[in-house]
Amino acid sequence: MRGSAIFSLAALLLLLAPTPQAQEGTAPAIPLTLLSPDGRGPVPTLVLNGAELIALDEVSDRFGVTVRDDALAGGITLTYNSQTVVVSNDQPMASVGGRIVALPSPARRLGNRWFVPLELLPRALGPIYDSRIDLRRASRLLIVGDLRVPRVTGRIDTIGPPTRATIEIAPAAPVSVTTEAGRLVVHIDADAVDLLLPATGGGLIERIRGGELPMTVAFDLGSQAGVARGVPTEVDGVTRVAIDIAGPALAGAGSTPGGAETPPAPSVLPPAGAAVAPLLAGPRARLETIVIDPGHGGDDTGVMGSGATAEKTIALAVAQRLRALIETRLGIRVILTRGADQSVSLDERAAIANNSKADLFLSLHMNAAPAASVAGAEVISLRLDREGEDARQVAAREAVSLPVLGGSLRSIDLIQWDLAQARHVDASAVLAQMLEEQLRARVTMSSRPRQRAALRVLAAVDMPAALVEMAYLTNPEQAQLARSENFQTSVAQGIYDAIVAFRAYLEVQAAP
Ligand SMILES: [Zn+2]
User: Fold this and answer.
1) Which of 75, 356, 404, 458 is the most buried (most CB within 10 A)?
2) Distance from the CA of 40 to the center of ligand 1, in angstroms?
3) 126: how many CB neighbours lie within 10 A of its CB?
């Protein structure tokens, strides 16, 4: 975690939160959709004290489980294929095959119906059910059965022109790209798609949205858009479609001295098999050294989770896995700010990164919250305060030498540190977005997956930088998960994928 300030912040947020809903709960803003091989449809749920609940009679109807109020078992039993789940009616947990799983809230009786948290379905019913149960809270999907429902994320990479954008499909799926009047459409071969698209477009792309046809993503193009292309590639189980929208053909270009009319800019894809330069090729970008900063260390354990899981230990373990991935696959030099359980100050960490002239700085941490139910990964990049924003404008003018600001009551050192990251806040925000997207494909994200904060360790480094809070150690389920090889590898792989994407972004930026 980043310091005790998070507790006071959380307390403040609680004060600012709306008063608890009426005892009956409220309907969620967007209904939950059940996807199964039989079709799709809404599932009634309600939100009570921050937890989303589903009625047990809905569960028994839809999942074919037998529900009994069982005082002897100390809760409610759900039986399926002669296996039983016991849901506690006073503790936020359930027991499945003798194993305890955490839930956001206990079962609740409202009127004459029992309600349980939605998480019960994947966490407790899932292990004994004969079909896969996948709850995607962020996209409001409950997927039952082996459906291919890839997550589809989109982003604008450069405004241009040419405007460049990327669609990522994870896990990978076959795609095709077509263009029609004012639009480029990506068709995805899947049972359904889980779309997480940016709210706004940019450059020659007015909007990225779900298309009229199922399983499509449509790019609405501006009136100035010229040739539109989409080139799919598949790397490490993720399909990426690099979208390239050329600017308008110059007036008169291509016209003959005889005054023949300029042909309109073609708005169709080149024929299949035509050579299309891959978007992400280009001059080698400057990504030669990466500094990975495992948070805390030595006497500073960071957050202590259940099972004596220390933040400093998980941070170092993931850092070492990530270093191995980067060094073996990318051949990029990796420096750790600490390679063992030792104490290193924040300023020393920044100095290691600055002195090694690193091109990327990633700090790894584990999070903490007063409520045990809070879970998921978060990515933080630097937020500039007013003074920092001034510094950024100064730094933009003075690309070579960093000026020392006079007349400030703050120490010169601190101002210089602030200036160090000020030049990189935009690139760091792009890096944070890529980290969020790639981590989302592999681990649970928190409800606030990307944030900006004035963090000293980020402010001090003179390179694109972000801090990753990998999971909440105050959540017993996440604390247990954090010790597993599977989790540590997933986080390392997600960060690795983001580094690959960021390197590609730098290459595009560097391209003429
Ligand atoms: Zn920390």
Assistant:
1) 458
2) 42
3) 19
The answer to whether residue 72 scores a pLDDT higher than 50 is yes
For the stretch 197-229, pLDDT in tens is 777 788 899 988 888 877 889 999 998 888 888
Residue 162: give its domain's CATH number: 2.60.40
The token pair that represents 183 in the structure block: 């639009």
Mention every residue, 6+ apart, whose C-beta is less than 8 A from residue 233.
239, 240, 242, 278, 280
Q: What is the 296 CA–ligand 1 centroid distance (Å)? A: 6
* C-alpha 470 – ligand 1 centre gap (Å): 10
Ligand 1 centroid distance, CA of 293 (Å): 11
For residue 198, how far is its CA from the centre of ligand 1 (angstroms)?
29
Same-domain status, 99 and 73: yes
Q: Could you tell me the CATH number of the domain that includes residue 81?
A: 3.30.457.10
pLDDT class for 405, splitting at 50, 70, 90? very low
**Are 397 and 307 in the same domain?**
yes
Are 119 and 219 part of one and the same domain?
A: no
Residue 355 Cα to ligand 1 middle (Å) = 23
Cα four-point dihedral sign 352, 353, 355, 356: positive
Asked if residue 241 lies in contact with residue 175, where contact means CB atoms within 8 angstroms, the answer is: yes
Residue 113's identity, in one-letter code, is R
159 and 125 in a single domain? The answer is no
- Ranking 285-294, 461-470, 484-493 by mean pLDDT, the lowest is 285-294
Compute, in angstroms, the gap from residue 208 CA to the centroid of ligand 1: 36
Calculate how far, in angstroms, residue 462's C-alpha sits from the geometric centre of ligand 1: 21
Interatomic CA distance for residues 172 and 133, integer angstroms? 20
Residues 167 and 136 in one domain: no
Pairing state between β 151-158 and 194-196: parallel
Gap between the Cα atoms of 9 and 435, Å rounded: 24
The total domain count for the chain is: 3
Report the pLDDT averaged over residues 457-462.
84
**pTM, two decimal places:** 0.45
Residue with tokens 């998480």: 119
What CATH number has the domain bearing residue 362? 3.40.630.40
What would the two tokens of residue 459 be? 């402010």
How far, in Å, is the centroid of ligand 1 from the Cα of 378? 12
Per the structure, the complete domain to which residue 81 belongs is given by 20-144
Q: How far is the CA of 303 from the centre of ligand 1 (A)?
A: 7
Q: Indicate whether 218 and 327 sit together in one domain.
A: no
**pLDDT over 80 at 106, yes or no:** yes
